[in-house]
Design a protein that fits this description.
The complex is a heterodimer of chains A (about 270) and B (about 350). Chain A has six helices and ten strands; from the N terminus they run βββαβββαααβαβββα. Chain A is an alpha/beta fold and about 270 residues long. In chain A, the strands form two sheets. Chain A has a six-stranded mixed beta sheet with strand order 6-7-8-3-9-10, with helices on both faces. Chain B has helices spanning about 5-10, 15-40, 45-60, 65-85, 90-115, 115-125, 135-155, 155-165, 165-170, 175-195, 200-215, 220-245, 255-280; strands at about 295, 315, 320-325, 325-330, 335-339. In chain B, strand 3 and strand 4 form a beta hairpin. Classes of the chains: A alpha/beta (about 270), B alpha+beta (about 350). At the A-B interface, helix 2 and helix 5 of A face helix 2, helix 8, helix 9, helix 12 and strand 2 of B. Bound molecules: adenosine-5'-triphosphate, magnesium ion and zinc ion (4 copies). Magnesium ion binds near residues 48, 49, 87 and 169 of chain A. Chain A: This is Metal ABC transporter ATP-binding protein. Chain A: Pfam families: ABC_tran. Chain A: It comes from Nocardioides furvisabuli.
C-alpha cells in the first residue's frame, strides 16, 4: 500500500559502508514509509545485501545514519518490530535441529529471558510454519531439507516474531513456483495488515503485483528510486547471454535430486 | 576382583564421592559441549584443557587449591580464545595452537619448579579415583550445577546465537556476551571434569556423547538431553571399570571413561546410518532422470507447457523453465532451450 504521507519507518541518510578498505555503499539516502512494499534490485555485487545489512545493524556505517521507527539504530531496542531473512543462509548447524526449533528462535524477540514459550508463542510458530507450507515437516531435521525448503524455514523464522518491518534478502531464490505463490500470498496479507516490507530480488515473479516502489542499485549507489519498472527496463535483452545462466541456488523442493548439495553453493 | 569386592569398593566413602563427581561431570560436559559442537568448535574444550594445565601447576606451585587456580586460568584462556576467534584473523587457528602448547608446556615446567614432578600433575591430566577430597566434591558439584542451570535455562537464546549469530544479532540478542558465556561455561566444565576424566581427555566428554546422540536425534533439544544421559552413563561406568581394574593395575579413570563413550559411539553409528537410510527411503522417490540432454524439437513434446501441465515451473530470469525428464526447459520459438 503506497502511502506517501505515512511516517518514515526506515530513514537512512548518506549511508556509506566500506568493506575490506573498499567502499561498497556510497552516500545512499533511503526513506521507507509505513506500509510500503519496496523491491530492492540490481546486479550481483551492486550492494543490495550490504544495504540491508547496514539497515539492520549488521554492518557498521563508515558515514551517515539510520533511523528505524524514528530511533537511531544503535539505540533501537524494540527488536520484535523487525524481521530479517538473510540471503542464502543455511538453517543447519553442527548439531541436528528441527524445523520447529529454528522457527521458534525467531520468536525470541518477544520472549523475556527464562520465560518458557507460552500459548501465543506456539500459535505464532504454528502460523509461520503454515504460511511457508512446512507444517507437516515441523519435526524434521533442518539439514535433511533441500535448499529451497531451508529458505522457507528462514522465512518462517522471521514471520514467527510477528514483526512490522521485514527485510527479506532474496527470499524466493531456489523456491519453486507454488511456494513463491504461497509466499506472495503471505506477504500480501502482511502488507494489507500494514507491515512494511523491504525485499531484495532479482526476479520478482509472483511478487511483482505487490511492489509499490522499486529501488535499483548500481555499484553501491541507488541508481533509481520510483514506481516499479517494466521487465525490459531492468533486463534490457530478452535472451540472457548463453552460458551465463546462474541456477544458484539450485532448484528446490521437491526435485532435490536435481541439484547437488545446495549447501555447496553457500558462502 | 570379585563382584562382592567391587560392591564393597563402590560402597567406600572416597568411591561414593568420586561417583557423584563423575555423574555431575558426565551431565555438565556434554550439555555445554552441544553448543560447542553446534558452533563447529569441537576442539575448543581441548584448547581450554591445555591452558588449564598451567592453572593447575600454579596451584601446585603456590600451595593453593588447584581447582580454583585452574578455574581462573581456564576462564582467562577461554575468553582469550573467544576473542581471537571473533577477530577472525586468517591465522586464528595458529594463534590458538600457540595458546594450547604454551598452556601445556607452561604447566609441566611450573610443576617441575614446584618439585611435584610428573606424578603430581598426572592425576589432573588423566583423572584419579582416589585423590578427590570431600571439599573438592562439593566444589565440583556446585560448579556443575551452575553450568547445568545456566545452559538449560538459556537454551533458547544460546541455541539461536550458536546456530545463526547474524539473525540473533538482528533479533537483539547480545551475541558477543552469549559467546563469551559459552566459553566461560566451557572453561568451568573443563575444571569440573578435571578430577575425573582429566584435562587432556576432557574434550572427549564434551564432544563424543554429542556425536553419539546426534546419530539418532532429529532435534537440538533431544540431542542435548541424550548427550547428557550418555555422558552420565559413560562417566559413572568408566569410573567403575577403572576401580574394578585397579586391583590389578593402576588405571586412571579418564581413559576408561573416554573409551566407554567411544564404544557407545561405535555401537550407535551403524544404527544411525540405518535410521538415516530408512528415513531417506521413506521419502517419495522423485521420478527424475539424470544427464544433460541437448535442445529438442517441439514435436518431442505432446503438449504446450503451462500452468497445470504437470511439469513444475521455475522462474528463471525473464521466463519460466519447466522441469521435465530431469532438466529445465524453456520454450523458445520452434524449439526448447535447456537451461
Ligand atoms: N565481507 C566482505 N568483505 C569485503 N567485501 C565484501 C564483503 N561482502 C561483500 N563485499 C563486496 O561488496 C559488494 C556488494 O556485495 P553485496 O553482497 O551487497 O551485493 P548484492 O547486491 O547483494 O549481490 P548479490 O545479487 O550477489 O546478492 C561486492 O562487490 C562484494 O564483493
Ligand atoms: Mg545479496
Ligand atoms: Zn509440461
Ligand atoms: Zn526438454
Ligand atoms: Zn533458444
Ligand atoms: Zn531458463
Amino acid at each position: 500500500m503506497l502511502n506517501p504521507a505515512g511516517t518514515a519507518v526506515v530513514e537512512a541518510r548518506d549511508v556509506t559502508v566500506a568493506l575490506g578498505g573498499r567502499p561498497v555503499l556510497r552516500g545512499n539516502d533511503l526513506v521507507v514509509r509505513h506500509g510500503e512494499f519496496v523491491a530492492l534490485m540490481g546486479a550481483n555485487g551492486s550492494g543490495k545485501s550490504t544495504l540491508v545489512r547496514a539497515l539492520t545493524g549488521l554492518r557498521p556505517l563508515t558515514q551517515g545514519s539510520v533511523l528505524l521507527f524514528g530511533t537511531p539504530l544503535q539505540d533501537f531496542k524494540e527488536r520484535h518490530r523487525i524481521g530479517f531473512v538473510p540471503q542464502r543462509g543455511t538453517a543447519a548447524g553442527g548439531v541436528p535441529s528441527s524445523v520447529r526449533e529454528v522457527v521458534a528462535s525467531g520468536r525470541l524477540t518477544r520472549r523475556p529471558l527464562l520465560r518458557p514459550a507460552g500459548k501465543a508463542d506456539r500459535a505464532a510458530i504454528d502460523d509461520a510454519l503454515e504460511v511457508v507450507g512446512l507444517t507437516g515437516m515441523a519435526s524434521e531435521g533442518v539439514s535433511t531439507l533441500s535448499g529451497g525448503q531451508q529458505q522457507r524455514v528462514l522465512i518462517a523464522r522471521a514471520l514467527a516474531g510477528e514483526p512490522e518491518l521485514f527485510f527479506l534478502d532474496e527470499p524466493t531464490a531456489g523456491v519453486d513456483l507454488p511456494n513463491q505463490l504461497a509466499l506472495a500470498g503471505a506477504l500480501r496479507t502482511l502488507s494489507e495488515r500494514g507491515a512494511t516490507i523491504v525485499l531484495v530480488a532479482h526476479e520478482l515473479g509472483p511478487l511483482e503485483p505487490l511492489v509499490d516502489r522499486a529501488v535499483v542499485m548500481r555499484d553501491g549507489r541507488i541508481a533509481y528510486d520510483g514506481p516499479p519498472l517494466a521487465h525490459e527496463d531492468v533486463h534490457g535483452h530478452h535472451h540472457p547471454i548463453a552460458g551465463s545462466h546462474d541456477h544458484v541456488p539450485h532448484v528446490g523442493s521437491p526435485f532435490d535430486t536435481m541439484s547437488l548439495d545446495p549447501r555447496e553453493d553457500r558462502r | 576382583m570379585s563382584p562382592a569386592e567391587l560392591l564393597d569398593l563402590l560402597g567406600r566413602d572416597f568411591m561414593q564421592r568420586a561417583l557423584l563427581a563423575a555423574l555431575l561431570t558426565g551431565l555438565a560436559a556434554p550439555a555445554i559441549g552441544t553448543f560447542i559442537v553446534q558452533r563447529r568448535l569441537a576442539l575448543l574444550g581441548d584448547g581450554i584443557g591445555h591452558v588449564a594445565v598451567t592453572g593447575v601447576a600454579l596451584g601446585l606451585l603456590t600451595g593453593t587449591s588447584p581447582t580454583w587456580t585452574a578455574v581462573v586460568v581456564a576462564i582467562l584462556g577461554a575468553v582469550l580464545i573467544e576473542v581471537i576467534r571473533e577477530k577472525g584473523h586468517t591465522n586464528g587457528d595458529v594463534a590458538l595452537a600457540l595458546l594450547f602448547y604454551g598452556g601445556l608446556a607452561g604447566g609441566v615446567l611450573i610443576t617441575g619448579l614446584a618439585g611435584d614432578g610428573a606424578a603430581g600433575l598426572q592425576v589432573y591430566l588423566f583423572g584419579s579415583v582416589t585423590s578427590i577430597s570431600s571439599t573438592e566434591v562439593w566444589y565440583t558439584a556446585g560448579l556443575a550445577l551452575v553450568v547445568l542451570t545456566v545452559t538449560l535455562g538459556l537454551l533458547p537464546q544460546l541455541f539461536a546465537v550458536a546456530s545463526d549469530p547474524e539473525f540473533a544479532k538482528v533479533a537483539g540478542l547480545r551475541v558477543r556476551a552469549y559467546n563469551l558465556l559459552v566459553a566461560v561455561l566451557a572453561a568451568v566444565s573443563v575444571t569440573v571434569a578435571m578430577r575425573t576424566v582429566g584435562l587432556l581427555l576432557v574434550s572427549a566428554l564434551m564432544v563424543v556423547p554429542v556425536a553419539t546422540s546426534q546419530q539418532l536425534a532429529r532435534s537440538f533439544r533431544s540431542t542435548l538431553l541424550w548427550a547428557m544421559v550418555l555422558g552420565g552413563v559413560a562417566a559413572v561406568g568408566g569410573l567403575v571399570v577403572a576401580a574394578w581394574l585397579s586391583a590389578r593395575a593402576t588405571v586412571a579413570p579418564g581413559p576408561s571413561i573416554v573409551l566407554l563413550a567411544l564404544a557407545m559411539f561405535a555401537a550407535t553409528w551403524p544404527v544411525g546410518v540405518w535410521a538415516r537410510r530408512r528415513r531417506r527411503l521413506a521419502e517419495p522417490f522423485p521420478a527424475l532422470g539424470t544427464g544433460t540432454p541437448g535442445p529438442h524439437e517441439v514435436d518431442e513434446h505432446p503438449h504446450q507447457h503451462g500452468d497445470d501441465c504437470g511439469h513444475p515451473a521455475v522462474p528463471h530470469d525473464d521466463h519460466l523453465d519447466y522441469v521435465h525428464d530431469g532438466h529445465r526447459h524453456a520454450p523458445h520459438g520452434e524449439h526448447y532451450d535447456e537451461h
